[in-house]
TrEMBL record:
<dbReference type="Pfam" id="PF23452">
    <property type="entry name" value="HPAT"/>
</dbReference>
<dbReference type="InterPro" id="IPR056508">
    <property type="entry name" value="HPAT-like"/>
</dbReference>
<keyword id="KW-1133">Transmembrane helix</keyword>
<dbReference type="GO" id="GO:0016757">
    <property type="term" value="F:glycosyltransferase activity"/>
</dbReference>
<keyword id="KW-0328">Glycosyltransferase</keyword>
<feature type="domain" description="Hydroxyproline O-arabinosyltransferase-like">
    <location>
        <begin position="66"/>
        <end position="358"/>
    </location>
</feature>
<keyword id="KW-0812">Transmembrane</keyword>
<feature type="transmembrane region" description="Helical">
    <location>
        <begin position="16"/>
        <end position="36"/>
    </location>
</feature>
<keyword id="KW-0808">Transferase</keyword>
<keyword id="KW-0472">Membrane</keyword>
<protein>
    <submittedName>
        <fullName>Hydroxyproline O-arabinosyltransferase NOD3</fullName>
    </submittedName>
</protein>
<dbReference type="InterPro" id="IPR044845">
    <property type="entry name" value="HPAT/SRGT1-like"/>
</dbReference>
<dbReference type="GO" id="GO:0016020">
    <property type="term" value="C:membrane"/>
</dbReference>
Amino acid sequence: MKNVMSVRKTVNRGSLFLYVAITIGFCFATYCALLLSAHDRARVDPVIKMPEERKRAGFQNPKKLFHVAVTATDTPYSKWQCRIMYYWYKKVKDLPGSGMGGFTRVLHSGRADNLMEEIPSFVVDPLPDGIDRGYVVLNRPWAFVQWLERATIEEEYVLMGEPDHIFLKPLPNLAYGKYPAAYPFFYIQPAQNEKIIRKFYPKGSISNVDPIGNSPVIITKSQLKKIAPTWLNISLQIKNDPEADRTFGWVQEMYAYAIASALHGVKHILHKNFMVQPPWDLDIGSKTYIIHFTYGCDYTMKGNLTYGKIGEWRFDKRLYLNGPPPKNLTLPPPGVPETVVRLVKMVNEATANIPGWETL
């Protein structure tokens, strides 16, 4: 806590030089302390060694609600995605099987915007100018540190989501006790990047670093409060390490969360059905809960994928950096996978029903 308070005081004063100096100091202190505790702590792989009571529970805490939290900026690009996410959250939240509690858009722009009345929001400070070095996602762990300390969160668990998440159906609490739930990303490969990861996690089996990011993750507030400052520390360390920065690129903050969790001895239950990512995932599946529309979807009019080349039909969130997509987007041509068709239909439903969609 002392480390995080040091960051807060520095951010409030806006002193970049002092912040950097303190960051280096508390990163090293936190790093050493966590290594000692993490190395000696017994770990259980929750997927391989599964307690019988958890088998019977089906990996779920049906009566323990989680709070949905999404970090965001005040840019038009972030706003329209958050509006769609919140629309579908409200639509499925109270349906049977849901473990969804309250919702907060953690706005790390440092000031209120014009969505405060539409979406429950909590304003936190961004990192000081220059600290993120153009990688705005580094604000994410800092936003969670502030929100967890300053906000009143009634639920015991938190779902860390992102603006480009759409809820397909009511999401149950997939976590179980001290085992958070997470989605395994195929491009998070700790074993293949062991040499670099050892700079930040020098002891213990590399298998302790889960192949995950911080989202989607369902985790207890108490665990996240411990992990978040370390997640911030490791994110800054990776960004300031040329080799790690170059290798991890746009997923470096995801690796930072996985490493921080390992330092705290936290293992995640991996749920492949947590979400689908079109266009690579083709089918929705009966137990899929989220569509993550991070990739562009480009197709010929015959339904053939032309990824990396602009298609005759396309949907890509990056087409709408400066404003929201129009209502009633053209549906994909025949032969396009179910995930893409469902995505466009859900975007169209949301934009047709959100008041002031094109004028806010």
